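Before relying on records like the one below, remember that each one covers exactly one chain. Contacts with other chains, cofactors or solvent are not represented anywhere in the record.
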Amino acid sequence: MNMQSIMAQAQKMQRDLQQKKDELNQQLFPGKSDWVEVVFNGKKEIVSLKITYDGSIGEDDREMLEDMISLAIKDSLSKIDAAFKEKMGAYAGMLDGLM
């Protein structure tokens, strides 16, 4: 292989990785807990937060609701990480500092 061929392959790989990253950034990742639904995009930015608990929330339930929000957020973020690893495959580990 000559250097020009190697550079062309590297540029193609860079374009492919950027395309996959852009696709992931546009994708939506819902997260749920018992009382909360949250949606993030692939950049880990919150798109929506919905409280699904239909009863009144008293002061005693506030702490429980905070825990439910935290669980929904963790669920959504774990889906983003899983999709990133699936989409980026072998390159995911190399890109941790770049993305």
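Strands lie at 28-32, 36-41, 46-51.
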